[in-house]
Amino acid sequence: MLTGAVREIFHTNLGVKRTERVLVFTDRPTKRDVVSDEDLQRWLRLKEDISMLLVETGRGFAREVSFYCYPSRGGHGVEPPEGLWKAAFGEKAVEALKEKRLLRAIIQKKASPEKIEEAEEIIRRYSAQAVDVVIALSNYSTSHTRFRDLLTRVCSARYASMPLFDVQMLEGAWMWTGRPSARGQRPWHGWSTGPSGWLSAPPTEQR
Fold it and tell me: Phi and psi at residue 85, in whole multiples of 5°?
């Protein structure tokens, strides 16, 4: 049943095409994260079971499926590390951001509106190298990050954010509020999961 639900994510919810590239990522707990034993086991399954199932299933739909795992950032809405930016936007885009001293400022949430605009121009220049679809399985949400905003709004990537994910969410009812869209069309609204189920996550929302 789980494999069927995962196939639906790629086929129906995200509309992944054979010509597209997909990025699946998650985070792993560190000593800084204080969680119960039960929650820790749920979290570890994100990398050991669920992520691998998504990657293997996705290879039957997409041209390329990559996987990235990074140490927990410790909270919701924290920007992911440089390595994930490279996996999503490509080496050239990230190097250009670093050359202009923009990436660190963005990750630290210290970039001014002018710097954000400059970063957007760089990301747009290299947008063809960005992935088409992202499945964010990190325990901590990346929905309200500049990383997600630039992917969905500037690169028109489809972004499925599933923080605090539990395998039971694949076995329950779905609340679907978005629809797939091709790159270059109006940004896709996407969806995310929370403790109560599937929720809408508009790509232009920022905190």
Answer: -60, -40
- pTM score, whole prediction: 0.81
What amino acid occupies position 36? Answer: S
pLDDT over 70 (residue 18): yes
**Nearest-10 Cα torsion for 62, 202, 80, 138:** -70
Query: Can you tell me whether residue 193 is helix, strand or coil?
Result: strand
Q: Which of 122, 118, 115, 66 is nearest to 93 (CA)?
A: 122
Over its C-alpha atoms, the chain yields an Rg (Å, rounded) of 16
Structure tokens at 63: 């041209």
Give the alpha-carbon dihedral of 23, 130, 71, 102, to 10 degrees.
Answer: -170
Decide: 123 and 85 in contact? Cβ < 8 Å: no
Segment 37-89, tens digit of pLDDT: 888 888 887 777 888 889 999 999 999 999 999 999 999 999 999 999 999 99
C-alpha 12 chain-centroid distance: 18
Domains of the chain: 2-78+131-200 (3.40.50)
Unique residue bearing structure tokens 């299933």: 57
Nearest partner of 155 among 126, 127, 122, judged by Cα: 127
Residue for token digits 């927990």?
A: 72
Instruction: With beta carbons less than 8 A apart as the criterion, state whether 162 and 137 touch.
Output: yes
Residues 6 or more apart in contact with residue 27 via CB below 8 angstroms: 46, 69, 70, 71, 72, 73, 138, 139, 140
